[in-house]
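ok, trying the design again with the full structure, not the truncated one.
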């Protein structure tokens, strides 16, 4: 029997989203945990069909023609509804109602589209349906180190005995097969392939008035013709059954995420019992947004991994920063792969890259200044939620260094800032590419990461205490107190925001949410009551919007530098509103946080969090929710981002006020009672012991 407190695919469905060709619309993605695909501005077409080690890049294929005319040229409105298991698209053109259901089949490198066409005339008609096929499949033979997966030119040829086209890579062992479902398959109509130019799949439908006919499109990739054709044939037998299997599999995975010992995950998430639709929606949004990025792909040298973006950019890459922003969910839901990633990252030089490409285990990109803070957060969350204290004594060797316990690596990361000082008491965190990438003044000595260093030293001190190193703990806390005073020298008195200190000594005011959230979360006790009040007022005045927030204030002089909405005035990266809400609670403004949650919950209406959402002034809201930003230049925003776990952390740690110490002591100081006095978190597993947390702060141990 299904629990009302565990989501199904229907519970997580998006609102009906509408667009016309090339609107500011980010088309939804799909995954089956092997790879991903994205639907396009069309009712049939798909793009970014990438299942490592096979990839098409961002190639669009399956574009629809009706009676010889390109569908998208009609300019008609397309309705889109996303669910974890499928994307439903609908449109009406020339008295034809077209509905398609797109899914990634469980366990298969491919995608299927079930196409239904209904005649809305009162006369019989014959409709020509065609799909334009493109193929750029490749197998690169190495890590994918660019933002877009690789592709190469293919030759196209008809497949004997099937209504299908085979794309063959010229320089690698990779093929794709695209075609119609098998003739005679349930409720389907057979088709054909152009003989002279094998790039068009054609089908002719004779429709009586009001009649609906179905045709299925299948797209598979593989290393050999036999492999791709075998997968194609299996899917082509019954496309509706494949789509039903995707639904069943996704419902099974969602149930498993909230079920200890499910065998699908190495941990589980607590169940939220609440009468508040807003809390439930935000919590499920956060959990889904991590599950969505799980990859169980044989091509991974890391075993199970979690991607960071999808379905268009940086597939096969796990960014340390984004992984840390969902740290609490990883620690609760899937701690075994979390530990494996931690061990891997410890053995690399985290000051030289931003993440790992999982087909090769190779470092990717430039240094992100946040890495020390991110790694300490990850280790701390892993240890306190799993109870795996021996991990702190586990000996690992960083690149070019002798082995040492993880706790000593934490100590090293907590002190790494000292080597970045450039004639000041604060660390210089480098240039724009090391930080927020699209705010030119947010460089060098920034308040956020220097404030994080205060927190990092205090965490390292707690770990030293556990090992009996009292002197080290005492020294670290003293240094943290001194550093907090230096961070406060960047504060703009009376304004609620901070300066960045540049190499020439100039203090440049930067009205950015990352300072607000990070300082607010890492050193709130080192701020005066006046500072805390001013920071909250600044946030409400310049950053907060009804259903989202601005990453940068529109009053900031650098607001003209970029229109990329993840870190600029016109929107925000998905973790920033969640972390800002947590910071509000930490700064003593829990009432402001709670009053904001209903508006934020309206933004969970388009599938998982996008890499950025626009604020309402930049692009009109969708049914009250801040709209996802689009992928095209100059925005370059992917449809989903794995830092979504920050929303679950908001509910658990701020709304319910749950605190878990390094040694596993669970306490709670909830704010949730003001929204729902009967709310509970059940099955919060800490160190192998389950706890229930009530709205009044009662923590009850429910298992040994």
């Amino acid at each position: 029997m299904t629990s009302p407190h565990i989501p199904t695919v229907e519970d997580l469905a998006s609102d009906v989203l509408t667009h016309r060709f090339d609107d500011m619309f980010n088309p939804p993605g799909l995954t089956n945990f092997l790879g991903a695909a994205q639907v396009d501005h069309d009712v049939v077409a798909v793009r970014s069909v990438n299942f490592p080690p096979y990839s098409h890049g961002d190639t669009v294929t399956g574009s629809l023609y009706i009676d010889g005319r390109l569908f998208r040229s009609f300019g008609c409105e397309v309705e889109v509804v996303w669910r974890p298991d499928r994307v439903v698209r609908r449109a009406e053109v020339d008295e034809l109602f077209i509905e398609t259901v797109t899914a990634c089949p469980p366990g298969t490198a491919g995608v299927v589209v079930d196409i239904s066409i209904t005649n809305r005339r009162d006369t019989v008609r014959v409709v020509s349906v065609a799909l334009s096929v493109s193929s750029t499949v490749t197998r690169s033979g190495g890590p994918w180190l660019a933002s877009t997966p690789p592709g190469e030119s293919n030759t196209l040829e008809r497949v004997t005995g099937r209504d299908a086209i085979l794309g063959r890579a010229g320089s690698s062992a990779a093929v794709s097969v695209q075609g119609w479902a098998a003739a005679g398959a349930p409720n389907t109509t057979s088709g054909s392939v152009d003989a002279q130019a094998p790039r068009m799949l054609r089908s002719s439908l004779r429709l009586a008035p009001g009649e609906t006919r179905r045709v299925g499109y299948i797209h598979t990739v593989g290393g050999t013709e036999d492999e791709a054709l075998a997968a194609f044939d299996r899917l082509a037998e019954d496309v509706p059954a494949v789509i039903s299997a995707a639904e069943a599999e996704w419902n099974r995975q969602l149930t498993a995420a909230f079920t200890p010992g499910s065998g699908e995950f190495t941990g589980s998430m607590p169940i939220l019992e609440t009468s508040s639709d807003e809390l439930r929606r935000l919590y499920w949004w956060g959990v889904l947004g991590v599950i969505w990025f799980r990859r169980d792909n044989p091509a991974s040298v890391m075993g199970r991994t979690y991607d960071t973006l999808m379905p268009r950019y940086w597939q096969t890459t796990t960014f340390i920063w984004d992984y840390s922003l969902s740290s609490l969910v990883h620690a609760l839901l899937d701690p075994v792969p979390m530990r494996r990633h931690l061990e891997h990252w410890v053995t690399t030089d985290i000051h030289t890259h931003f993440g790992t490409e999982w087909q090769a285990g190779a470092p990717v990109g430039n240094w992100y200044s946040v890495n020390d803070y991110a790694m300490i957060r990850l280790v701390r969350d892993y240890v306190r939620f799993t109870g795996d204290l021996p991990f702190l004594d586990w000996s690992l060797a960083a690149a070019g260094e002798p082995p040492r316990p993880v706790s000593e690596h934490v100590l090293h990361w907590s002190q790494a800032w000292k080597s970045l000082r450039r004639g000041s008491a604060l660390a210089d965190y480098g240039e724009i590419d090391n930080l927020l990438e699209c705010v030119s003044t947010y460089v060098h000595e920034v308040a956020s990461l220097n404030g994080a260093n205060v927190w990092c030293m205090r965490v390292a001190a707690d770990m030293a205490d556990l090992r009996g190193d009292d002197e080290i703990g005492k020294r670290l806390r003293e240094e943290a107190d001194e550093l907090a005073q230096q961070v406060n020298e960047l504060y703009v008195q009376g304004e609620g925001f901070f300066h960045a200190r540049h190499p020439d000594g100039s203090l440049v005011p930067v009205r950015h949410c990352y300072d607000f959230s990070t300082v607010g979360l890492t050193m709130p006790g080192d701020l005066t009551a006046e500072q805390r009040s001013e920071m909250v007022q600044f946030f409400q005045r310049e950053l907060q919007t009804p259903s989202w927030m601005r990453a940068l204030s529109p009053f900031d002089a650098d607001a003209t530098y970029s229109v990329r909405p993840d870190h600029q005035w016109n929107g925000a990266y998905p973790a920033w509103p969640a972390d800002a809400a947590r910071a509000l609670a930490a700064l003593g403004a829990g009432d402001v946080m709670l009053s904001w949650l209903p508006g934020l919950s309206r933004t969970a209406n388009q599938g998982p969090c996008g890499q950025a959402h626009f604020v309402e002034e930049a692009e009109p809201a969708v049914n009250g929710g801040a709209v996802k930003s689009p992928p095209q230049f100059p925005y370059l925003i992917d449809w989903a981002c794995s830092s979504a776990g920050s929303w679950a952390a908001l509910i658990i740690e701020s709304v319910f006020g749950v605190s878990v110490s390094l040694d596993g002591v669970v306490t709670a100081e909830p704010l949730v009672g003001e929204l729902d006095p009967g709310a509970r978190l059940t099955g919060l597993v800490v160190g192998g012991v389950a706890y229930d947390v009530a709205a009044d702060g009662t923590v009850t141990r429910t298992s040994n």
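Keeping the full-length input from now on. The chain has two domains: 17-251, 268-694.
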